[in-house]
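Minutes, project check-in

Agenda point 3 was the complex the collaborators sent over. CS summarized: three entities, 821 residues total, and the question is how they sit relative to each other. Sequences were read into the notes so everyone works from the same version.
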Amino acid sequence: MKLFRFETYKIFSRWRTYISFGFIALIVIMTEVVMKLSAHEILYRMMRSFQKDFLIFGNVLNGWFITAFIMNSLHIHIPFFITLVAGDIVSNEATSGTVRLLLIRPPSRSKIITAKYLTTLFYTTGLVIFLGLICITLGLLLFGNGDLIMNYQTKFRIVFIPQAEVPLRMLLAFTAAVWSMTVVASLAFLFSTLAENSIGPIIGTMAVVIVFLVVGNFPFDFFRMLSPYLFTTYMVFWQRFLDDPIPWQEIAKSAVILGLHNTGLFLIAFIVFNRKDITS
Amino acid sequence: MEAYSSKEVVLRTHGLSKKFGKRWAAKNLNLEVYRGDVFCFLGPNGAGKSTTIRMILTLLTPSAGSIEIFGMDLHKHRRAVLSQVCGIVEKPDFYLYLSAYKNLEILGSMTRRVQKDEIMEALEVVGLTSRAFEKVKTFSHGMKQRLGIAQALLTKPQLIILDEPTTGLDPQGMKEVRGLIKKLASEGGMTVFLSSHLLSEVELVATRMAVINRGELIAQGFVSELLGKESMEYSVQVSPLDSAVELLAKLTWVEVLAAEDGKIELRVEPGHASELNRFLVSNQIEVLSFYPHRTLEDFFLKITEGTSEI
Amino acid sequence: MKRALLFAGVLFLISTEWIQAQEDASRYLDPIEKKYSALKDYIVDVNVHFDIEALKAPDLQAKLCYKAPDRMKVESKRIFFFPQEGGYFNPSLFKKKNFDIRLVERLIYDGRKAVRLKLTPMDTNTYGKSFVLTIDTDRSLIREIKISPSEGREVKATMDYGQFGDFELPTCIDLQLDIPSGEPTGMKEFTQFGQKTKGITGKVEITYSNYRINVGLSDDIFRERGPKKPE
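CS then shared the predicted structure for the full assembly.
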């Protein structure tokens, strides 16, 4: 616990950590303000096709809808902010030379690397929760409460979630979103263990995420075959908590696969770090 | 010297070796460091000193051999051993975005619980109390070196390992560090293991030494034994020069090699270095400076060519 | 000569029969128009049940306001979906003058005499859709409306009635939907509503209760029903 506390203190003593939070707040505020100003236009454009067949009344563009809308871009901007810290947490010790002071202390390398990993996960969780809190708080303030209308990207399908159910489902969705993002964090963490500077892990992680996302979305048979083996395919499983009925089996499968990724990535980092010769 | 046989061996290596690819950086090192020693590990750049120190401090995994500290195998009892050991490898680097105090708190607490007054005391010893709460990125190299020593002292270790501790320091800084090392051993009861490529440094601080070249142990023993048998060369600034040269020519244990511009180059037989200074002063010769000369290369050449009995 | 006269006579008979049939077709709307001529407005509580694969929603409740000839508004505290076509009762919709009306067939519907009329709009700009009405001629009630607005869409409404004051008004409208999905253009940037080429098929059951008839609704309450088009 002491090591975890120190690592957390170190991370949150650096101003770059707050860049992530600052930018997230900026993105959310800008998005929500623009959506507020352009509410009618947005709603018209989003509902145009559906309006041919149905009349729609009520506060569709409410805080929950906005939150879900912003969350849909979660896998685009959040990974970058995660890698800023996760990709730096181990490699920075080598860059700055502090690894020589750190690893001659009594705590084993296993404990040190585990503490760093837990800190990475803690930061990732904090970042996603911060996104959620700011989305929901500002969203409810600007757009009010109401039922949530969700659409599924893979089907022409609308899901209506009653207002009373939305908070719990959002909580579950954000928990799942945290879990998704921990895989990105684990990947960046592994790269950080392998490298001796931060740039490589950050760029490397983003490259992997982007390539996997692109490949996984190509509408060709060959890439569809690859899709189940890419962790990015499962990263959007948080959306399933906003479906009706909630596909628990599918959620469990995605969670397990992502968990296996986390375990594997951490184990590799663990082994590498323990065996590494510190020559810098 | 015989008393050493009853002294505790604090650090012992058996056949310690490290290979990087096909190159042996350290090969079959058998070192012994006794309690209270200021043990200097001497060798030119690239000899394997840092490699050896890094193996002792578990930064490198040995390719062969073992390390015992306080009678315990280092790798089996790592935590117990390292809780009584502290070290600085190359230059001390800290978390630049944290204050000196916070750095010491974090690093010290990884060994044992440290109190605020202990941290302040360590900073006071190295003269950094006034900068305790400033970020380390504002520190000079010398200040970081002193902070490094502070973190080494903080947990009151029994064995301190220093890798070229005076590198990058000005003469005043070097003198301060050397003084501190001696004090740690004599007053603090600590055993000091340091590496250096400066023979003069060895002569000024060390009690025992080992010589390493190309990864192999050349010699090990007391400084006085290893260096005392050798004549030392000195550069002495005196006034008046002519009178001094005339006086020195009469001594049998001194050979004047050169004399010009107020400076005399001398070769002095072992054991007479301190006598030389007294002789000049008692004969109304003003001694303005007194520098020993011995290159490591000369010393190594002599050792390796077998021109001196070790 | 005789043959020519015979041919002319047959032709005359057919044409008169045809003319009479057209006059008959439009006649079936007269009693309905008369029956509801006194209906100026109503407010009713609506419950909508969806049985559509493409729309997962619980039963939705709202209050529907209607004012003759064509004003409709829904009031709901929550989000409310309501079918564009056939979701509410508007007796003023089927004005004879607006449609070309043909008798399709006579039939027995639900044990009663009925006729099936096809209504094709005279002015497609105003009414872009055609209707097939099944009218219970005994009770002068529209029992079924089949709406084919455009682009292969088809909606069929089946109506049950109850007596509310002086009027027979729907207690339940069942809508069968078979609608292709909307065009995807202009919506790709909003991934939340990204569209694929799939249709909406299924059933919507709308039940009506607590009618308040001819309450004197003001025109002011009938605002825009949905999101505004951007200017």
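Noted in discussion: The first helix of chain B runs from residue 49 to 56.
Follow-up: revisit at the next meeting once the mutant set is ready.
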